[in-house]
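Field log, afternoon session.

UNIT: design team B
ACTIVITY: writing a sequence onto a fixed backbone
BACKBONE:
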């Protein structure tokens, strides 16, 4: 019980920070897709990326997958049998490394921090 009380403020801060980052990611993706809809020649580069997971828990992997799917222009497609690779379809995948770094920095790391506290 004491551990939960001590981590409650930290959980709230992590959750608020994550909500701001996630809202910004969704807004950026919405603007990018909206801009492409209005262009005569859309700049999409669709592809499937094999994303190496650092997360190990079922809930954490599910959360990452679900949150990725709710971002416009991305979709979680499959999870490898050993649960180490998440396949993600994206409309803007020209720079694979930048895509992976953004997902790791803005989604996977905050999810891992939050799940560690639960």
């Amino acid at each position: 019980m004491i551990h939960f009380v001590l981590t409650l403020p930290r959980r709230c801060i992590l959750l608020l920070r994550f909500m701001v980052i996630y809202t910004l990611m969704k807004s950026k993706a919405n603007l990018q897709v909206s801009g492409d809809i209005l262009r005569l020649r859309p700049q999409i580069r669709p592809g499937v990326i094999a994303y190496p997971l650092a997360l190990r828990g079922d809930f954490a992997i599910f959360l990452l997958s679900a949150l990725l799917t709710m971002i416009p222009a991305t979709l979680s497609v499959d999870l490898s049998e050993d649960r180490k690779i998440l396949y993600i379809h994206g409309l803007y995948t020209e720079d694979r490394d930048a895509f992976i770094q953004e997902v790791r920095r803005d989604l996977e790391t905050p999810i891992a921090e939050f799940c560690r506290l639960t």
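LOG NOTE: The radius of gyration is 16 Å.
NEXT ACTIVITY: expression trials, pending approval
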